[in-house]
Structure formats: C-alpha cells, structure tokens
Amino acid sequence: MAISLTEPAAERVRNHLEARGSGVGLRLGVKKTGCNGFAYVINYAEEVTEDDRVFQDRGITVVVDAQSLALIDGTEVDFVKEGLNEAFKFRNPNVSGECGCGESFSV
Q1: Which residue in 22, 62, 76, 80 could disulfide with 91, CB within 3.0 to 4.6 Å?
Q2: Domain total for the chain?
Q3: DSSP letters along 42-92, please?
C-alpha cells in the first residue's frame, strides 16, 4: 500500500508547509459525493491519529485515513499548471469511471 507524489506535487506541499509554519504533511482522503460516488479531499495534516496510515515520499509525509486508503491505494499525486489554472491531479489505478467534469470518480 502506498501513495506517491511527483516532484512538482512534493515541491508545492513543501513550499506551502514552510509558508504556513505548521503542519506535519499532506492529508489525502475521499468523501462520498458527486455524480460518480467519490471525490478527493486534500488538505494539510496537522496531526496523525491512530486511524491514519502514513507514507513518506520525496521528503513529504502523506497521511491517509484507513477507510480512504482502500479507494486510493497506489495513487500518484501530481501538481499541474495549465495557463492560469493550477491544481493537484490524481492518477488512481483503482478508478473504474469518472464524471464528465472530473470532480468525482467510482471504483
């Protein structure tokens, strides 16, 4: 089981953690929503609980709650800039379908 980061994603998280001055890493999870069932939730991890799974990649701590991990195991997190837009992108090998707007996925 693992979650990985591309170098652009790791750099983005590293820079924002330094600017914030707090946090232990990146928190990644999912919530039930959207037209296809699940959506990614990404935030900065302030702490690690006993229900969390912790991964290290490119010097960044990635924290995932145990329930979400079953749906996103093997996911690579990227950070892309397209014109004026910038966002985290997810390459999840467990996805069986995505909605047209790209906001939700099914497994």
Answers
A1: 76
A2: 1
A3: EEEES---TTEEEEEETTEEEEEEHHHHHHHTT-EEEEEEETTEEEEEEE-
